[in-house]
Amino acid sequence: MTTLDEPLQVEGEQQPLSGLAMVPRGPQGQKPADYRSDQEVRWCPGCGDYIILNTVQAMLPALGLKKENLVFVSGIGCSSRFPYYLDTYGMHSIHGRAPAIATGLAVARPDLSVWVITGDGDALSIGGNHLIHALRRNVNITILLFNNRVYGLTKGQYSPTSNQGMVTKSSPLGAPDAPFNPVSLALGAEASFVARALDSDREGLAEVLSRAAEHRGAALVEIYQNCPIFNNGAFDVLKEPGSERRLIKLAAGSPLGLGEPDDQGRHSHLVVRDGGTLRVVARDEADPAQVLIHDPADPDPTTAFALSRLSAQDLSYVVTGVFRAVSRPAYDDDVRRQGEIAAEASPPDLEDLIFAGDVWSVPTHRGASA
Amino acid sequence: MNTERIDRVVVRFAGDSGDGMQLVGDRFTGQAAAFGNDLATFPNFPAEIRAPQGTVHGVSSFQVHFASSDILTPGDAPDVLVAMNPAALRANAADVSVGGVVIVDPDEFTKRNIAKAGYVSDPLSDGSLAHLTVHQVTMGALTLGAVSELGLGRKEALRCRNLFALGLLSWMYGRPTEVVEDYLRKKFAKKPLVAQANILAFRAGWNFGETTEMFAVSYEVPAAALPEGTYRHVSGNAALALGIIAAGWVSGMKVVLGTYPITPASDILHELAKHKNFPVLTIQAEDEISAVGAALGASFGGALGVTTTSGPGLALKSETIGLAVMAELPLLVVDVQRGGPSTGLPTKTEQADLLQAMFGRHGESPVAVVAPSTPADCFDAALEAVRIAVTYRTPVLLLSDGALANGAEPWRLPVIDQLPDIRPDFSTEPNAADGSGTHWPYVRDQETLARAWAIPGTPGLEHRIGGLEKAADTGAISYDPANHEFMVRLRQQKIAGIDVADLDVHDPSPATTRTLILGWGSTYGPIQDACRRLAARGVPVAHAHLRHLNPFPANLDDVLARYERVIVPEMNLGQLALLLRGRGATHLVSHTQVTGQPFKAGDLEAAFLAYMEGVAA
């Protein structure tokens, strides 16, 4: 039996611990303006990052934390300027490395709410290794992955989520790369919390973000974000009339459907199980026994993965909301707990440590004991 | 039977890498320490865990030098070689001093084994060992006989052969036996049969020496008169780990080690991972980059961020060290150097990362560089590196190497309340000069030029830092040309201004000595030994050894100017010499060796003499 078998719980509590359980509570009545730094925001006009920033500034007061105990760590890219605009602690670090830096910070400081701000190039290209390992370890951090399917800061090259064939300056004949599905990747990396939101859906985004912050362990939120300069309108079909035939909003315990609801609030189409996979069918064709009821707490990620595959690169269907939220031990809690248990068993004393083992004194003669 | 008193001896155990040579070498060392000898050790092993048996590639050895007086190196040439098979003999016989003793097991010298080792004829009969005293002891057969009562399988019984060899050597040098038997009982507590077999083999080896007439004499190496104090036997990597723990202890900062396994640095992780009862957290990261990233993230949070690696890993960490330079955060980066480039010689030693440590980053990116000089000195070097890192808010490169990491010596244990005082001195009050009541992270201490360091969780001091150029004082992003010029020079000035101890010179006759030997790192032992030998021959030479490679000690130029000739021995192609020439030194002789092995004192003695006589200048 190791010390690592059970998620951390406060004595007497039934629920797993919140991701914010050890972060000191702040004053009541915080306002979004409290989280605005004195820096002028310098994204391009029309950038989706503005809406995300406003949404984050609007949802942070509700978390009710001391703002000095919030840290935003970013990598490199347009989205990674995010920390400069929040009046919390922050670090604008190195391309791809934010999850690694956040891991060290989270391990050292359980009293902080640690956020990672990253983009599709930052998280999935140069930093892919750190992302999957932060998710695998389940470090108590909240990762916001702004996916605009293009490199913005370096002026418009295709990214690891760009459509195959996309014409850019670095791919005049079309991008030859097959894209990642970030939600599938995260689930494959054993993530305990995976969600997706749209920059334009402030309400949906805010809800997903606060649930991600409350999750103890690594939470990944993919945010579809428009780049008006290099990939403008990439997600427009999700914002235009008719988008309800594409968008599947996840709600725990409800049948999954899409399409304009009828007068009784019933969707025109439903998601049904079909063998090992999922399929969208018209309501009247759906076998009621096969209609999918969403359960983000399902310990088996198979259905969540199938849902992620329902989201197509061409956006014919896009699933948003929380795909998976399961409780398993957080890495940083375990690392600290090992130390606490060791310290209880053997209280640290530097002199004892250094003078341990086979020591001898000079001039005391210690010869020839054999 | 005679017992002859000698003042020093060098013993080397050599065998297949699965033969347990490191274990018996380590035990023999423990015996010497328990006896009160001064000692130094040199383990040498292949990179492959189990290379093909019986071949020269698979030979692993452990050399122990112990003495009744103060010694500095593991010894140039073994006086006694125990070779468990023909390959071990072939790989090591040439090193043995003339007239030295070789102990072999003749049963191992089958036609097949002789051929496998690459011999064309049997070295035991072809006269090629005529300059040595060869003792043929059927160690395998005698071990089988000794443990036969236990009913072990042949293979398992033969595994105790190394303890037979240790027993024989223990008899030859009158070593204490209890420490070995206690160790075996403890190590194999859960396998009492194995413990018993090893003890029987060990005793059989001792008794063989005692009862046969093969060995005309045994030897006595009296205890050494070391300076008063309490001692323990320590390897460089263990001393370094303990130094890191001690630095965390005295600074009150939690140690967060982010690291990735790499030879020969991994033992620092292993040692730190054993002491989690201290405020020591270890993160075995997914790669070298993540490892240093985690360390830097922890430093941002006010912990003592540490990362440990070897040359190839340092290359991967360089971008993050650049961020630490820009962010001006403490970070201890330990590089246990090995033979390079690329995978190079992972288990061997070299000093060829000095220029990488100094300059191996993008942009003008100065860091402090310190180097320990002996295995036990790794403890003090770690404390010194952390003192600089924390006081000056800077990454510090600590350059150890394979010889220090795995070598061991007696360590005179420090007095705990005399350890250096290291304080992070975190900011708690706003410092903005414009009266805005905010925190400006790049306001500096006028003396050290260290920036104000406020850690997350400090109310009212919220701020953002990062890799973009900083405006002086406010730390806001700045693309201003004049500001960049100012900041680049300021970062350089901060490192150049680090307060480091003056360079000590060991000069037996300052009025007449005309040659200075200037070294750094693990070459201390062989250089000092060579200088002593020259002094004994009436040839005085001075020796100075650099602990600080960046900044150099303030008196360095004065010291260099005092001598007509400065010889700089290095295990690289002259990297320190290049730095010194960059400062204008013109009277340097760069003496270099890149064999993957430490310098031998005798070779240095000859080389120094030759330079002084102008033969090889």
Condensed summary:
The complex is a heterodimer of chains A (370) and B (617). Chain A is of the alpha/beta class and 370 residues long.
Topology summary:
The complex is a heterodimer of chains A (370) and B (617).
Chain A: H1 48-63, E1 70-74, E2 89-92, H2 98-108, E3 113-119, H3 120-126, H4 128-137, E4 142-147, H5 182-188, E5 193-198, H6 202-214, E6 219-224, E7 247-249, E8 257-258, E9 269-274, E10 277-282, H7 302-310, E11 318-325, H8 331-345, H9 350-354, E12 359-362
Chain B: E1 2-5, E2 8-16, H1 21-35, E3 38-44, E4 59-67, E5 80-83, H2 86-92, E6 101-104, H3 111-116, E7 133-136, H4 139-147, H5 154-158, H6 161-172, H7 178-187, H8 192-211, E8 217-220, E9 229-235, H9 236-251, E10 255-259, H10 266-273, E11 280-284, H11 288-300, E12 304-309, H12 311-327, E13 331-337, H13 354-359, E14 368-370, H14 377-392, E15 395-401, H15 402-406, E16 408-412, E17 464-466, H16 481-496, E18 505-506, E19 515-520, H17 524-536, E20 542-546, E21 548-550, H18 556-561, E22 565-570, H19 575-582, E23 588-592, H20 601-612
Parallel strand pairs in B: 1-8, 2-5, 5-6, 6-7, 10-11, 10-12, 12-13, 13-15, 14-15, 19-20, 19-22, 22-23
Antiparallel strand pairs in B: 2-4, 3-4, 9-16, 14-21, 18-20
